[in-house]
Specification:
Length: about 300
């Protein structure tokens, strides 16, 4: 069951809950449709006598993308584990919605004997996914992450980066409502990092994403809400505007009349038979396909914010 946002519930004294613009009414549209999936009030977590989290008050709404940052040992992983239910509070109160959670741990387990292929199929099976659908999904992730040649390799023999890729794939395969990622870019090369960001941007449209990171690129590309922790406490919780990334496509059109068929695209004729099209990054592939189908040839493709 999801927890419903009710103004009375979150109004009042709790400064941190009210600092969330979604709930404080600054983002009215979102408030109308979004529900809380996690609420913590004055939560502390003690492990073996150590307070790893202290006095945590936090509210997460469905559909948010949140980055948790902080120095080493500040409590980022502990907070993500608290949100996901791996940790339960020692003190304070928690409410969690029932959710299908995909979790990418900071360190992938070292001693898994299964091959990548068997492991991913097993995870999918445990999550109750249909065999046929899942085969296609696994194939496409294997392709995106370029791990085809290691499919039959036992996981414990794979490189750190390959294990990290498998860690991400197993979480996404579950088609989760909530994706928790603990430092997901660690150990990945630049190309794979960009692919992970792109994948998460696609998931962010209809999935709640919470990640811990030291990488500014992940924060600026993905997370409008940034929580900072220090010594197990939340020391700031703020929102930034993420400017949508656009792709600018320049294309030669066989004849100008084609442009009348493309009125739904932001386009202008810059020379005879040459059009410039601005599209949101996530729509770019679709628009490129349409242009090519109309017989256009692509001259240039560049990104801008
Ligand atoms: N299971 C545990 N037992 C004892 N102490 C723990 C445990 N888990 C975390 N801690 C302690 O809690 C503090 C926060 O750890 P946590 O892993 O949450 O930090 P982090 O911000 O994720 O660190 P890093 O950036 O280095 O991964 C650290 O001092 C750590 O030693």
């Amino acid at each position: 069951m999801l927890l419903k946002i009710e103004d009375e519930q979150i109004g009042g004294n709790d400064k941190l809950l009210n600092s969330n613009p979604i709930q404080s009414g600054k983002i009215k549209e979102k408030q109308r449709f979004y529900m809380d999936i996690f609420k913590a009030r004055k939560v502390s977590k003690e492990i073996a006598g150590v307070k790893v989290l202290q006095d945590i008050s936090l509210c997460v709404s469905q559909g948010e993308t949140i980055a948790i940052k902080g120095t080493n040992g500040s409590g980022k992983s502990s907070l993500i584990k608290l949100i996901g239910g791996i940790y339960e509070p020692s003190y304070g109160n928690i409410e969690r919605a029932e959710m299908n959670i995909g979790y990418v741990p900071e360190h992938f387990p070292e001693n898994i004997r299964f091959s990548i292929n068997d492991y991913l199929h097993l995870i999918a099976k445990i999550s109750g996914k249909l065999e046929q659908k899942i085969n296609k999904k696994i194939e496409s992730y294997v392709d995106v992450f370029a791990i085809g040649e290691f499919l039959q390799t036992p996981l414990r023999k794979c490189s750190k980066g390959t294990k990290q890729k498998v860690g991400i794939i197993q979480a996404l395969l579950k088609e989760p409502d909530l994706i928790l990622l603990d430092e997901p870019l660690t150990g990945l090369d630049q190309t794979t990092q960009s692919k992970v960001i792109k994948l998460l941007q696609a998931f962010a449209n209809n999935t709640t994403i919470i990640l811990t990171t030291h990488e500014q690129v992940l924060i600026s590309e993905l997370a409008p809400r940034i929580i900072e922790v220090d010594k197990g406490k939340i020391i700031s919780d703020s929102f930034v505007e993420i400017k949508e990334k656009l792709n600018i496509i320049k294309a030669k059109v066989p004849q100008n009349s084609i442009l009348q068929e493309l009125t739904f695209i932001d386009q202008k004729l810059i020379e005879e038979n040459t059009v410039e099209v601005k599209v949101p990054f996530t729509e770019s592939d679709k628009v490129l396909k349409i242009l090519l189908e109309q017989g256009c040839s692509i001259i240039e493709l560049k990104e801008m914010r």
